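Troubleshooting log. The previous structure file for this entry was overwritten by mistake, so regenerating from the original sequence record. Sequence copied from the archived sheet and checked twice against the printout by T.R.
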Amino acid sequence: MSERLDQIKSPIAEELKEFEKRFRLSMKSNVPLLDTIMTYIVKRKGKQMRPMFVLLAARLFGEITENSYRGAALVELLHTATLVHDDVVDDASMRRGFFSINALWKNKVAVLVGDYLLSKGLLLALRNKDFESLTILAEAVEQMSEGELLQMEKARKLDINEEVYYDIISKKTASLIASCCSIGAASAGANDEQIEAMNSFGLYTGIAFQIKDDLFDYGDNPTGKPKGIDIKEKKMTLPLIHALNQADKSEKKRIIRMIKKGGKSKSQIQEVIDFVTANGGISYAKEHLALYHQRAHDALDSMKLENTDSIRGLVDYVISRNK
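Regenerated output below.
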């Protein structure tokens, strides 16, 4: 998979190196503790999917500009801030195989680090008068917060239907990928109609990304072993929602009661997974994954752009990833 990602990156390989240099500089601090933590964050960076979406989207409409680099840095700064805060909220000790900031430096420091990253992103945009990029991303962060809170509210009663599920994941996950595509397009001079089409493309990609994530919990990964993390955290995923809709009332109540009580034993998690599989939840989610995957490609096709192979490849990679 890494070779495939390198191939997708190849048209913007030099630009990604330039972005990384600028991103590191954007995080610098004169406070030794902050600088140590920023260095730690840079070293454990992920695959940089979001900056890739920004830069590849910009390339579709012209040259990658200074605005494009700043847009990619803005996205990554604010995204990293939300991850640091998420780890505090979830009391998570690990992130991408590394210790989280709160695990190493405690919650107070982690919250302040998230605030610092947020302020650096805001200042980067404001000092360069990148108001359009800032507006797009601020709206995404607003939606991400709303989506997270809506999910927490619904987790208490486990009364999420498909409409609410799509509302949650559109806000919580897909809005950020949509903003990456919009910011990239806007930075290269795309018109309003094109920016909106790129937003739709990113939204559909993000929805498919989340459905793929849902499937991992049920064993759709290289090991084939279910994780059951979403079940333990009482998250209503698409496979579970569909399976509950197919079950009779008594079976539905029994499964919901089991999840509500926080059933965390291996046998209880396996029982929920078997229930979801037997009631067609896995196959249903895979059908909808394919549907939103195709919608993303259709949104690109509607613009009749050239040189879309790399960004299409990135969508395919994101949706077929194995972790």
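The radius of gyration is 20 Å. Archived copy saved in two places this time.
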